[in-house]
Amino acid sequence: MVAVDQRPPMLKAIGEKIAPRQVGYEDVAPVKAMLARSLTPMGSAVLIDPDYGFSLAAGSIPADRGLLITLEDFRFEDTPGGRKTRLPEGWDVGKIKRMGADGVKLLLWYRPDCSPDVVAHQQALVRSVGDACARYDIAFLLELLVYPFQGAANHTTDYIENKEKYPELVLQSLRDFADPSYGVDIYKLESPVSADSLPNPDENTEEVRKAQEWFNKIGDIIDRPWVMLSAGAGMEQFRRVLAFAYRAGANGYLAGRAIWWTAFGSYPDIAAMERGLQEESARYMDEINRLTDQLAPPWDQAPAMAKGVELQNAGHSFPSLYAGFGSQAA
């Protein structure tokens, strides 16, 4: 599945190219529409934001592909005790359902070692979104990201992988939301190990075995389908993430920048961007799709599915979301 819902990274990159003019909707929306038009046909679904992306890209999304809409406001409250995610004013699960979407994605900045009030806020938000998705009969995808605290040497508010994250923080974050009462249908997860530090998964070394153990623990924690995010990783780094994850039971990917960031770098040369998407991005997506088909178990073979437990809130919207899964992965 392809993600084109990124806002801060895209706003920042475009802003640097057109400075001193301030970046606006008219700059970002056409780029998102191009990404959706070029890449969605190669995936089973597209994830897009409702503020900059959807309106102009809607006509470019094939009817036989799933439509996922991001719900979180990209502006979060960064406190000494941790980050508090919020929903954008005027947007909720009901509105996303009325748009005709197949799924709701919520990005949650989360650390289990945050202050109690921050942990309680984040957990309550996930539970409220899960309840709303059940009420409106729409799929709920939860994205979890570990981040550096204020005051840490590597603190940043950019949407990038925390290179110094501890694998146990990633795993404990997942444990905190593994309970079915949260109503999560699909987990969108980061690598428990920094993508840049992952060894070649095809080598037979102790380093490879240790990295695989961290990914295997994900499958021990949850029994629902899970897919990998790229968090801005490079193409080769994300290939390695997927190989480790698929061997641990991941069912696919939901990624953006690993696929299209190189082509995006040609902005504002739109023609060069389109060539990059049609050539390098398309080749890369074809490669990771083949890797997915070869290694990833189909989503309906997740433990909960194999036991005869249906996806939470499964309904008429799921056939389009899971178009392309069937006998293969996402």
TrEMBL record:
Which Gene3D superfamilies does this UniProt record tie to the protein? Aldolase class I (3.20.20.70)
Query: What EC number(s) does the entry state?
Result: 4.1.2.40
Query: Could you provide one GO biological process annotation from this protein's UniProt record?
Result: 6-sulfoquinovose(1-) catabolic process
Q: Which UniProt keywords apply?
A: Lyase
* Gene Ontology MF, one: tagatose-bisphosphate aldolase activity
Task: Check the record and name the SMART domains matching this protein.
Answer: DeoC
Pfam families annotated for this entry?
DeoC
Q: Does the record's keyword annotation contain Lyase?
A: yes
Q: Which residues form a coiled coil?
A: none
For whether the record's keyword set contains Phosphoprotein, the answer is: no
Domain of life of the organism in this record?
A: Bacteria
Family to which this protein belongs = Belongs to the aldolase LacD family.
Q: Which PANTHER family match?
A: SULFOFRUCTOSEPHOSPHATE ALDOLASE (PTHR39340:SF1)
Q: What is this protein called?
A: Tagatose 1,6-diphosphate aldolase
